[in-house]
Amino acid sequence: MFAAASFAALSSPAFASIPIGRGEVTPSITATATYDSNVFGVRDATDDYSATVRPGVSYIRQAALIEASASFGVSVIRYDEQTQLNQENLDAIFALTLPDSDIRNYSGSASAAYLESSDLDTDLNARVQKQTTTIATRAALASGPRTDVSASINHTDTERSVASNQKTLGTQVAYGYKDFFYGNTLHLAANYDQLESSGENDRGVALDQSSYLFTAGLSRAFAREALRARASYGYRILNRSAAETDAGVKRQSGSVISAGLDGPFLPKKYFPKIESRFGIAYQNSATPGINDTGSEEFTGFISLAWQARSTTDVTFGVTRSQRLSANDLSIVSTNVRLGLNQALRTNLEGSLYVSHDWSSYSTVDREDKTISAGGSLNYRFARSWDAALSHSFSTTDSGISESTYDRHLTNLSLTYRF
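The structure corresponding to this sequence follows.
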């Protein structure tokens, strides 16, 4: 029923792309039909069908000194039975970029985004309505033949219908010096970060943290600049509210050690069709949650991409990261993923994946293990028409019985760009 109504919306009057200056405005509309076997992500599953219609407009300009892009849309979501989940979600993104160039010694970017969403949060096992505002800026200057400086500011404000509202601020000033020591490049950086939450957590205490991080490192290019190795040492000082922990800790400090390889660390001579990357760090959580007094963890990633044939790509990746949940808990997650992308025809692509995720929640007795698998087909059957079909299955085994569940999710979408 909802699917028919969604696709009928595509018969609305068309608008041609509108040139504005050196850019172009393009309206579009996407209709999506969804089946979710476990809408709330709990043991006693509730299934439902939903339909989403998103009219939107995008703008892009790439022919001027400063490149610009913007998009705006409204996602109208309607459920068949769980009508309390009906939403109208706005999304707006704006970005300006001054790209790198051989004729000038500076570059920069600025972006702002506002996103509304109503998705399943697997940490809470509940659907959460979110409004997220993000502002990011970056500027870089080649201050000399061998030196460069950069500065960046990132701010995120997230408001939720369930659990904590959270605000983060991240700033960095960095300095680089090429050919510092036998062809190495010296990197120096200073970071200042802030985190605040509204305190909707088991302890009922708002997070209030600020941290200082000072880092020094070296990097070096190999294999005709195709591979770059890096290593760094840093020291972080974290100030926090005493009420966040039972011990009343107000200050935590510790080392941050990292190393990595950017580029193909597997020799091209022996693995000519494989692209590879690697990185690892040893550190405390940058944003520890409630009652987390800190413990060093290894985090990092490894990724491999194999072009088996001209139309076939195989990818493999392992990531381990620390993050903060919506209810202010520290989580360490490890994910292993294997994927296959196949061009079936010039206008038809397919993909398959399987993944395994482990998530450990600090200070509470919970560990989740999730196995997921899925696939998708993407079909462009005319200049302005795209269709996509995807299905995924996941099964989660948790230390909390309510968080042990299975879920099937199927999406069928159709997009028209005017």
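Helices lie at 2-8.
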